[in-house]
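Section 3.1: Structural characterization of target chains.
Under the original work plan, the team committed to producing a structural model for every single-chain target entering the pipeline before any wet-lab resources were allocated. The record below documents one such target. The sequence was received from the expression subgroup and is listed exactly as submitted; it comprises 364 residues.
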Amino acid sequence: MGALATAAEVHTSFNLLFPSRGRKARANKKRLSVIFQEKKVSAQSLKSKPLSSIQVKEIGDKCRKWAWKGQYSINFFVSDSESRPPLLLVHGFGASIPHWRRNIATLSQNYTVYAIDLLGFGASDKPKGFAYTMEAWAELILDFLHEVVQKPTVLIGNSVGSLACVIAASESRQSLVRGLVLLNCAGGMNNKAIVDDWRIKLLLPFLLLIDFLLKQRVIASTIFERVKQRDTLKNILLSVYGNKESVDEELVEIIKGPADDEGALDAFISIVTGPPGPNPVKLMPRISIPVLVLWGDQDPFTPLDGPVGKYFSSLPYQLSNVRLYVLEGVGHCPHDDKPDLVHGNLLPWLSEVTEIVDECNVIK
């Protein structure tokens, strides 16, 4: 989900001390094309439509297994029709495929929807001793596209899942990635990446101490057991969701269930104490495919006025292939927080992108 168990979530109490809300995005009156516009979107600006969701059990029943590198079992979902343009949904850290429960049914109406549990999460393997990195997840995504999907695909990610998609798109081979959707993209696998945020600078000595303590397995186990308690999980979720009604018992179970698996503690330690991974600031200029950035303005983990939020907010002014929408009253996980707002911006963009790509293929 990106809202649980990342370094940001491990340091939840610190983030809650500094819940800086994103500033309203500046209206850009000089846009030459609607494709590159920046908007702030509220619920009132979109016509209300019935929310279409899919049951978590139904998601589980439709999941399959894929052997990555011939040794790691990766859990993935695919919708019924495999003849439509494909999308791949990539969850954030601590989440899994069911976190897309409020999106799959809507997206499946016009697209073949794939969703994947990254190694270490959900029902995928959690190998002991594995060194989790952003680069490894990006490699997994590209291998999945090459071996399973086998078609140019739009990647849709949340938080660290977004960053994994950015890395994959920047390294995409054979035009595997046709578009990129980033939902509150993370700046790194953990807070070590955010070195120029005053909040992190203020807490840096304590964060380094936490990293040291987490390398002591007994201490790490105690912290992890505390983090995955239902009450703790629910409080964290309530702090990062703008729409509190979206934080239901099903969501808590989506996060808690895989956290009880063998190997979950090792993944937790590896990610919080590991390297932050490539910086999106260096990667985004390499990407020429269409990019849609959706950002909740009430995200306490990657706020609009933080370095990551500021950077992505500036992209439409720098890169002609990027479109940005700021979502009003939405937290760190827009797709589950207020899916109607996400769909209202995502579906028209997807239609545009798939039509453009198809036209280019016809011309060729």
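The beta strands are 38-41, 63-68, 72-78, 86-90, 112-116, 153-158, 177-183, 291-296, 322-327.
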